[in-house]
Design goal:
10 helices, globular, alpha/beta, Rossmann fold, 10-stranded mixed beta sheet, binds S-adenosylmethionine, about 45% helix
Length: about 280
């Protein structure tokens, strides 16, 4: 497993929610409002690599009143963390059985949890009923060969946010920034369980593969903007980046330690991502 902790996901959640491109989000919400209006039923979303449920918390209050979500992850601890975090977030818990049923800001949200290894079983998940397949901070983990499989099996709208684009800017600048970023990219392209990860190339590959299959594809930037108001997040980000680079052995220990010491107190950090909305041809 790639081992994302619920603590790390909680630290990044406010920056993730701020960064999402609003225009793209509005488009997917309009599309789902149209489904609810014309078909008079709950809209259905499947969230791939759901972690502790941040993507649902970002979107659900802007979606139609009746919603059905399937949260998919292979990590049972994160699925349990998602259930707990959603119960804490809800205004009311209607039912806490196999399906968790919640009320939040006037919406009724039914949530199913599915423990699935998406590296192996993506085709099975994409065959489940859904109006939108969604994901947050997931697609940079997967390999190009897996992305081709994914695009081949996708039959419905895809709305994915926060795929890392490879750009980072820390302020004030440090002499080891460029070497660190290069080594971090090398780490991004290691195997995260799906084969050699596409990392920052994932969005371009998805655009190419989906457009070739007749999808209408729109990309929008969604950079993190973080400063010392989120000191714990900056520290965790710097520490995580340094640990990843240390694993590559591409930077000497002295430069790495100096970089980390400077970065935990950085004034500002921008990390680039892409959001993608892809709609199938009718
Ligand atoms: C960066 S986290 C993002 C979590 C969540 N979407 C969010 O925005 O907070 C990536 C997620 O993908 C999940 N994941 C990684 N490999 C997976 C696999 N093979 N099958 C299912 N989930 C996987 C991890 O467990 C983790 O929850």
């Amino acid at each position: 497993m790639t081992g994302f902790s619920a603590q790390w996901l909680a630290l990044r959640e406010p920056a993730d929610h701020r960064a999402r491109d609003r225009a793209l989000q509005n488009k997917v919400c309009e599309q789902l409002a149209n489904v609810a209006r014309t078909e008079q039923r709950a809209v259905r979303l499947i969230d791939l690599g759901c972690g502790s449920g941040s993507n649902l918390r970002a979107l659900a209050t802007s979606l139609p009143e009746q919603q059905h979500w399937t949260l998919v992850d292979y990590d049972p601890l994160l699925l349990a963390a998602a259930r707990a975090a959603l119960i804490a977030w809800a205004d009311q818990v209607i039912s806490d059985q196999t399906i968790l049923s919640l009320r939040k800001s006037g919406k009724t949200i039914d949530v199913e949890f599915a423990q699935v290894d998406l590296a192996r079983d993506i085709e099975r998940v994409l065959a489940w009923p859904a109006d939108v397949i969604t994901a947050a901070a997931f697609f940079d983990l997967v390999a190009e060969t897996w992305l081709v499989r994914f695009c081949q099996a996708l039959r419905t709208t895809l709305y994915t946010v926060l795929t890392y684009d490879g750009s980072e800017q820390w302020l004030p600048a440090h002499h080891a920034d460029d070497a660190m970023l290069k080594a971090f990219h090398a780490h991004q392209k290691t195997d995260k369980g799906f084969g050699v990860a596409a990392g920052p190339d994932a969005s371009a590959i998805m655009k190419r593969e989906l457009a070739a299959r007749g999808f209408q594809v729109t990309l929008a930037p969604s950079p993190w903007q973080i400063d010392q108001a989120e000191a714990a997040f900056i520290q965790a980000l710097a520490t995580g980046s340094a640990a990843a680079v240390r694993e590559t052995g591409l930077l000497n220990a002295q430069d790495l330690d100096q970089w980390l010491a400077a970065r935990v107190t950085a004034q500002h950090c921008t990390v680039g991502h892409w959001d993608i909305l892809a709609t199938p041809a009718r």
